Amino acid sequence: FVSEDSVLNLWHSRLGHAASDVIKRVLVNFEPLLAFNKELEPCAACLQSKSHRLPFNEFVTSYSAPFQLVCTDLWGPSPIKSQGGYSYYMSL
Fold this sequence. Notes:
InterPro entries: GAG-pre-integrase_dom. The chain is mainly alpha-helical.
């Protein structure tokens, strides 16, 4: 005897985490003797994939002249020093 829950969960995974109504329609075509009255319990993968981060606030600051905003990246220390003896790299 196989429980209704285990069959639904198995097909939920096999069908790419499809919704319970989709699984029931598929199983009615392939397993007409099975009657499913339960709803599918959400799996961990589905719960995690449906959790979304809130959108970032829209960036509203505008700049009208060069160098009002300067972005830089600093990398180092380098395991090998440059010819000038420097061990950090900065890009603008």
